[in-house]
Write a structure and sequence with these properties.
Length: about 525
């Protein structure tokens, strides 16, 4: 069957779907969703059964979707066991070569089939630019108890019901929305009746309920932790009682104290504790989502902190379905920096103790045994740089979009990334710079850095590397373009303090001229 394409709104991404089974009902549902502004510019169905071909063919529809979303729908049983390696390698190779995002949605095999989705998911996981989701999670979220349609499967190789395809269409709409939405970063978790059943202040730890319901909640939170969400405890409780549960019921719990970067266990209102936690982690309250069983607490938090996400887990609800249905936890594409985030935040309290005893960044770095490393940006860094370009809004030149940065890197533009680590943890890649020779001058086209790395000498080292590269190539100065946004004063101040000259272009952008002596002298 030939592929087909449907036009949608102009402001959404392109979507291409390739499936190892007939997915025509899903395409129709996506086309219906495509009438909504921002969902998709075009929706294309690749030829039937052409999954590997889409990943390997340099002229495929997947390749032509340079800045969109490519979707693979497949089942473990659609592949011979030795073909799973081929599929995984083809997918990993594709995201290494191309800019578009690739999502693999693994559907369950029919009851009684020998396929194992765990093996396929394991082979596909951990690759930057590649997201793997289980269709079964979306079935659970949207109440599809039986997703199979044996009659349609026999007639036309359509193995799933209309309700199942509708659940996946809703899931894919969430993936599209997540590509441009500001993600939550922190999950604040209640304890009593959320992580376990019962009040730990009233019951002995052995008397608390930790059954499948609560383990499913814990497993979900642990998976979100592994995907880069920061977990914190936010509980109206006696701290010693909470500590006893984690200590005495450790064999029953899927979460340990080490999974949590910070905690507030006291009798203050939750919204006050969330504000305090946000200050400790140097984040806005809009980065948080609270998970709590108490309806009044959820209502009070939503009223006091309207930008904070709130997920209510009633006692009589399917808790996992509630969590899976919430968009507050949507983060489909993760980087190594995401996975290191918890480690970094757990070290912040320890670092704060050191900050109080030093008088300069140099002394702080010496006490923390800080290591700042700048290396040329390679393919392995591209996804992280794109992520920084999309999410950084304070320490950024704000002159290139994530798509423009991606295109420049893939076209061979020189770039560098900077990583930071110390004796309390590894931040991973925290900044990047992209340069170019333009009309005989050396330009920094994009400069971006996470604010977590401020005042550690990171920005200075990164900028100096780019400036020195220009000097080594014979350019006496480096021109850094900056677009004032109202939020990036940190970056503007940093650059102008190092400038030999600052001028303004006709499009309100600043051009900061930096010479090698200025960059080095600013350290």
């Amino acid at each position: 069957m030939a592929g087909n394409s449907t036009e949608g709104p102009l402001d959404g991404p392109e979507i291409v779907v390739a499936s190892s089974f007939t997915s025509t009902p899903l395409i129709a549902l996506l086309e219906h969703l495509g009438s909504d502004p921002g969902f998709a510019r075009t929706i294309t169905s690749a030829p039937y059964g052409q999954v590997v071909e889409q990943l390997l063919d340099p002229a495929s529809s997947f390749v032509r979707t340079s800045a969109g979303l490519n979707v693979v729908l497949t089942r473990p049983g659609d592949w011979q066991r030795d073909a799973l390696t081929l599929v995984a390698d083809a997918a990993a190779g594709f995201v290494a070569r191309h800019a578009g995002q690739l999502l693999v949605c693994v559907f369950p095999d029919a009851p009684g089939a020998p396929g194992d989705d765990a093996e396929l998911i394991s082979r596909l996981s951990g690759v930057e630019g590649l997201a793997v989701v289980r269709a079964a999670d979306w079935f659970h979220a949207y109440g599809v108890a039986d997703p199979f349609d044996a009659h349609a499967a026999a007639l036309a190789d359509v193995p799933f019901s209309d309700e199942a395809f509708a659940a996946v269409a809703l899931g894919l709409s969430r993936v599209v929305a997540s590509l441009h939405a500001k993600p939550r970063k922190v999950i604040a978790v209640d304890c009593d009746y959320t992580l376990w059943g019962g009040a730990c202040g009233d019951l002995d730890p052995a008397e608390l309920t930790i059954d499948d319901r609560y383990r499913r909640v814990q497993r979900f939170l642990r998976d979100r932790h592994d995907a880069g969400f920061v977990l914190v405890v936010c509980s109206r409780n006696d701290p010693a009682s909470v500590d006893r549960v984690f200590a005495e019921r450790a064999d029953d719990l899927l979460l340990t104290p080490e999974h949590f970067a910070a905690r507030r266990v006291n009798w203050d209102p939750k919204w006050q504790n969330l504000t305090s936690l946000a200050a400790e982690l140097n984040l806005g309250v809009d980065s948080f989502v609270l998970v709590d069983d108490d309806a009044l607490t959820c209502a009070q938090t939503a009223e006091a902190l309207p930008s904070t996400g709130v997920v209510h887990l009633p006692d009589d609800a399917d808790a996992l379905a509630v969590l899976l249905r919430s968009t507050d936890f949507d983060r489909f594409f993760t980087t190594e920096a995401d996975r290191l985030r918890n480690q970094s935040y757990r070290g912040e309290a320890l670092r704060a103790e050191q900050v109080a005893t030093v008088s300069s960044p140099e002394e702080l770095n010496a006490k923390l045994e800080t290591v700042v490393e700048v290396v040329p940006a390679g393919q392995a860094h591209w996804r992280r740089i794109e992520q920084l370009a999309a999410r950084t809004n304070q320490f950024t030149s704000a002159t290139m979009t994530a798509a423009q940065v991606s295109a420049a890197l893939r076209a061979g533009a020189p770039g560098w990334v900077v990583s930071l680590r110390d004796r309390f943890g590894d931040y991973g890649v925290v900044g990047a710079v992209v340069a170019a020779e333009i009309d005989g001058d050396w330009h920094v086209d994009a400069l971006m850095m996470s604010c977590r790395a401020l005042n550690r000498g990171v920005a200075e080292t990164l900028l100096d590397t780019a400036v020195r590269a220009g000097a080594d190539a014979g350019f006496p100065h480096t021109r850094v373009r900056v677009r004032p946004t109202g939020r990036n004063d940190l970056a503007i101040d940093f650059l102008t303090r190092r400038a030999a000259d600052v001028s303004e272009e006709t499009d309100d952008r600043l051009v900061v001229l930096i010479d090698p002596a200025g960059a080095e002298g600013a350290r």
